[in-house]
Amino acid sequence: MTTSTLVMGVLNVTPDSFSDGGKWATTEAAVSRALALHAEGADLIDVGGESTRPGAGRVSPAEEQSRIIPVITELAGQGLTISVDTLNAGTAAAAAAAGAVIINDVSGGLADPRMAAVAADTGLTYVAMHWRGHAQKMDSLAVYGDVVAEVVSELSWRVDALTSAGVRRDKIVLDPGLGFAKLPEHNWRLLASLSSFTDLGLPVMLGASRKRFLAGVLPAEAGIDARDLPTAVVSVLAAQAGAWAVRVHDVAATRTALNVLALVDSARMEP
Ligand code: PMM
């Protein structure tokens, strides 16, 4: 059912994420932001300590962990369901020990060869996103003949590699990776073909929130915040396509949009 789509609220504990960098950079600010997202209706909180915006530099795993582990410990202790957004196996393991229950790896296991073992050993839900390379060079990797077929096949290859490394298939969630080595037309094409991903038989997650391609539906002078409305619309499209979760910054807008869908769906059921 469309109404069961989970809302994952984004918590970037970073000085430089493209849409909210620096706002939640202290543990206290980050925890209070997460509690606000939870109050707005987030089912999951995705905590990240390394920006993946195009062109972003890397941070060390030690720096990443010092940013996010205290936040995860506090939020998991308060009973929130926490996902860790990381490319690093060591950070994923530390986050699991701190109470995270989902590993969200935008590289699908490609950035750190030890990630599959951590996913297998912890037994956590593992989000494998489509990825072709680090942020510094991903724009140059946005070259496709048939973007849908290639993203499906590259994700299927990741599922094979992960399961061969001991990750249980029923723990894997797939994400086409909107905005990662994708031009605007690639993102729209993937959005038009979500059934190609749900047809793979694994849960599907989508992260469109505030991404550059959404600027294409807005006036040229619109700021980043204006992307929250098209983000909420994409959340509805994702839910209608059967997505397991949507990853968003503006939880309230997506929750409201999904509430509309829920009422329409239940009205459709009425005699
Ligand atoms: N996008 C970003 C970060 N993490 N994780 C998943 N699974 N899917 C995404 O699309 C995704 C992600 C980049 O957005 P941000 O810099 O605003 O967090």
Question: Helices, strands, pairings?
Answer:
Elements: E1 6-12, H1 27-39, E2 44-48, H2 61-77, E3 82-85, H3 89-98, E4 102-105, H4 115-122, E5 125-129, H5 147-164, E6 172-175, H6 184-191, H7 194-198, E7 205-206, H8 228-240, E8 245-248, H9 251-269
Parallel strand pairs: 1-2, 1-8, 2-3, 3-4, 4-5, 5-6, 7-8
Helix pairs in contact: 1-2, 2-3, 3-4, 8-9
Bound molecules: pterin-6-yl-methyl-monophosphate.
Residues 10, 12, 17-19, 51-53, 85, 104, 106, 127, 129, 175, 177-178, 205, 207, 210, 247 line the site of pterin-6-yl-methyl-monophosphate (PMM).
Care to describe what's here?
Helices cover 41% and strands 13% of the residues. It is built from 9 helices and 8 strands. It has helices at 27-39, 61-77, 89-98, 115-122, 147-164, 184-191, 194-198, 228-240, 251-269; strands spanning 6-12, 44-48, 82-85, 102-105, 125-129, 172-175, 205-206, 245-248. The protein has an 8-stranded parallel sheet. The protein starts with 5 loop residues before the first strand and ends with a helix. The mean pLDDT is 94. Residues 10, 12, 17-19, 51-53, 85, 104, 106, 127, 129, 175, 177-178, 205, 207, 210, 247 line the site of pterin-6-yl-methyl-monophosphate (PMM).
